[in-house]
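Hi R.,

Here's the chain you asked about this morning:
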Amino acid sequence: MNRIQDLSKLIKLTGDRAKLDAKANGTYIVYKTDEGQIVKEYSTGEIERIEEQDLHHE
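And the predicted structure, written out as tokens:
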């Protein structure tokens, strides 16, 4: 495997592990979709969009 394939595999495994941890702890993961939208994905499979104004903290 080349470096890009190795890195892609590690990224996928990290995401899979995050989903398992979220399920075990009853929490969620946050990620950016291919369309550029930031979402919360709960261990139940429910996906909630995060609006732009919710990202800024004062």
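The chain is about 45% helix and 20% strand.

Let me know if you need anything else.
M.
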